[in-house]
Write a structure and sequence with these properties.
The complex is a heterodimer of chains A (673) and B (308).
Chain A lengths: L2 H65 L11 H17 L4 E5 L5 E4 L13 H7 L4 E6 L7 E10 L6 E10 L1 H52 L9 H18 L3 E8 L2 H8 L1 H18 L5 E6 L2 E7 L3 H15 L3 E3 L2 E3 L3 E8 L6 H16 L5 E3 L12 H9 L3 E10 L5 E12 L3 E3 L1 H10 L3 H21 L5 E6 L1 H5 L3 H12 L6 E6 L7 H14 L2 E7 L6 H7 L3 E4 L1 H6 L4 H16 L3 E4 L5 H10 L3 E2 L10 H10 L27
Parallel strand pairs in A: 11-12, 14-16, 16-17, 17-18, 18-19, 19-20, 20-21
Antiparallel strand pairs in A: 1-2, 1-5, 3-4, 4-5, 6-8, 6-11, 7-8, 9-10, 13-14, 13-21, 14-15
Helix pairs in contact in A: 1-2, 1-4, 6-7, 7-8, 12-14, 14-15
Chain B lengths: L7 H19 L4 H6 L9 H5 L3 H6 L1 E6 L2 E2 L3 E3 L6 E2 L1 H13 L2 E6 L2 H9 L5 E2 L7 H4 L2 E16 L16 E5 L3 H9 L9 E5 L2 H9 L5 E5 H9 L7 E3 L5 E11 L3 H17 L1 H9 L10 E2 L10
Parallel strand pairs in B: 1-5, 1-6, 8-9, 8-10
Antiparallel strand pairs in B: 2-3, 3-4, 7-10, 7-11, 7-12, 7-13
Helix pairs in contact in B: 1-5, 1-12, 5-11, 5-12
The chains are: A alpha/beta (673), B alpha/beta (308).
Chain lengths: 673, 308
Amino acid sequence: MRLGSIGVRGGSAGSRLFAMYAAASMVSVAVLGAVLLQGYRDDATSHGHDQGLAQAAVIEEMAVAPALDGANLAMGLTAAQRDRLQVATDLAIFRGSVIRMRLRSFTGQVVFSDDGSTAGGVSVADPAFRTAIAGRADVAFVPDAEREIGTVIRVLQPVITGASGQAIGVLELYLPYEPTAAHLDEQMRNAYERLGTGLVGLYVILALISWSTTRSLRRHAARHEREALHDGLTGLPNRAAFRARAEAALDAAGRDGTHCAIVLADLDRFKAVNDTLGHHAGDELLQVVAGRLAGVLRQGDTVARLGGDEFGLVLPGVAAADAVNLLVRMRNVVTQELVLAGEPRSIEASFGIALYPDHGTDVEELLQHADAAMYQGKRGTAGVVLYAGRGTGQPLVTPAELRRAVERDELELHYQPKVRLNDGEVSGLEALVRWAHPSRGLLPPAEFLPAAEQCELMGPLTEWVLRRAVADQVEWVAAGHPWTLSVNVSAANLLSPDFPRLVAEVLAEAGVAPEQLILEVAETALAGDLETITRAVRELAAHGIGVAIDDFGTGPARLSQLRGLAVSEVKIDRTLVSGAPLDHVDQTLVRSMIEIAHGLGCRVTAEGVETPPVRRWLADAGCDEAQGYLFSRPAAWPSVLDRYTRQDCDHRVVPQVVIPGAEDHQSPVPQVG
Amino acid sequence: MKRIRRARRTLAAFGVSIALLVGGCARGGEDDSAAIGSGDTIQVDQALRQRLPESVRERGTIQFATDPSYAPMESFAADGRTIIGFDADLAAALGSVLGITIEMVPADFSTALDDLGEGAFDGVLSSMTDTVEREKKADFINYFSAGTSILVRRGNPAGVRDLKDLCGHAVAVEQATVQEDLLERSQKGCGARPIAIKTFKNNADALLQLRTGRAVAVLNDFPPAARLANDSSSRRHYQLVSTEQYEPGLYGLAVAKTNTELRDALHGALDRLIRAGVYKELLLRWGLTTGALQTSSINRVARPDGGS
């Protein structure tokens, strides 16, 4: 499933963010560590300096200055001063507390040194010496001249002999640094350890905070993205996500030179479920269907809910045959019966397929073609339809167009006669609606009834047909032909609680006896809400209106249902009728149907009778009436009237009105699969 | 005194120039202003300069001996070499008026007048009180007035309130000072319990005795004694017994009796500084205005008996 990919994408972005945070924290912690360490080092150095200065100050004040009282270094030391100085400093020199000591005049002359030499010492020009001359002490770590390794503290400071503060020269002292250094090293080591531990801890805390923050951000982003790209009801990707994925899939297919199928799927009669069982049932149905669709997908496929009961699929890498196979399989799964609001229901769905690159190269074009294919499927040819190209695929009839057609009175009625087989007389006419489309010519009902189903035009359309047909009937009765009138109604009509009353009103207004009207209901319509339909049929029957089961033998009706339906007529489907004279099974079926219908008190009419042998066989089998090209193609009623008025004795008429592609059969209910 | 920098000398010169400038403006109509001049540097008074000995004008430098253990009059700066204080500033100002450099050199107070007589220095400027005795060795240009104060350890553990309280105690003073004379004269009132007078070659060594408890008092001129008792670096250790100044006298800049030309030139320069207000300004700077003189004089011993 593609659903997972959002998480993966979000995850990698989150990891990058975390890595960035971690790196930034690392840098700042490292900088902090460096600054603190430098501070510690500086402190240690400064500590060493201070210690050297303090030591030198004490030596100067307690040993050197008292020994030199009254000395003028420019003149050198007296023997007494030299002795006093030696006595005062010998022990410190001997013990190594002072490594080297020189007493110098302001001109740099070495007046006294621990080893008696008068050479060596810091240059007078040295800044350290200048500092001491200026009255301040200078301290520095310098390499130990005698040992080649190690460091000593060198202090140069003025010698101030008396209480009056007079400086007489410069004291050059070299003090051991090792003890101080060892101490400072120890301190530094401790500082490093504490600092290291502290900084590592700090870094860990920062990293944890970063991790926690990025995780929250990642989750938030993932949820946000999910909400933006998913349908709340089914959890499937929404239209926007579908478009993005379709575009990505097409791009990939374009790069790889493979196919990609864009599929639109639509549930049939979803609206009826919503209307009769409520929105909860509708939502439940959508959820079940979404689950079933998602369950059949392969890795890399996408199914999205585009809105209402419409679903879109992206199937990368499939060619025509694969796509059809896959979708047939999917359709079988989706249309499995399910229990909805406590009742078992069948689901029907139409799938329209458009292939990249065969049927288009952009998503919009492919979607249009898939839509066209799907509507073709709804018109009854098949449940899964592969777009067949612009040549054969007529532009769809849209509900809006149909609504306009009704308003402009572009619809018209044709009639096909029903003939009694025993005497060849016309017993009634079946009204068949046609649409005189301004640009596409005369359209059969299969072209536009799905659109009517889609937008609740079925009620008004049927009413229009009914009123027009009844008006026509009044005319032909007036012309001396007491033929019955058959009008097709859909399941939607029967589900409408007002329908029986409406029919009765129409008849009453026209002054037509109810017995003169037969409403034909397709057998497939009985698959719906049988209880409601049964009630409607009974009500109609109570008014005296006849009800016929149309296309009998093709649908799901159980024989037992017929008994309860108060049906007056059964019309055997053309597929059974046309093969009856030759096919033994069909013969058996048709005979049984006739027998059963008669047993239930129903009249039997055979549809699609096109040849005299069929007619003869039906007459022999006991069929009451027949209908088909053998007698007449559907035609406007005046021409039917003319024909039967003029050629009353010859029933084997060649139809004058021929409608290309039209059938003498119609069903108000879309044929699926 | 530690806080005083070597730059003091420069500042002093600058201060003099400012004071001269201000004085000049305040008294624009007087002769002095024209003589002192205006601007950033002190104008040399050529008339006074002409009164200098030929040799001094040629050298351009003269040396004053001083014992720099007597802040705020004269003391070593932090470097232990530069001498600072009112006397040092006064010397610099005098040099500026005369167009010469006057160096302050450290010397023993007790031998300074003798050394001056032998020509070791050109003058002694060391808070030296003008006395009859000393006038025999040198001429004194009087420039300040001060008496003697008794300095004791803070808390005054010996309970000294007056000179007579010093009887029977060790008292430290600088050698050859009027204070030593004062103590000697006070012995008469002590009877069987004489003062143990300890003398030292400079005032700092005498103070060391008091600081370390080897003397109960030190006698100083009032200005340095007041400084010790009030300066934050020393007030922990010292205090004045009272504000009384014993035997007030005049400080004098000593010049060899043979060198009258230099003496008169210096006297003229000092007179000019007093009238121009530079003198007052320098006193103010060192907190010494109580000892200010209105006019300068030569060898004018304040007391007929010459004891100060």
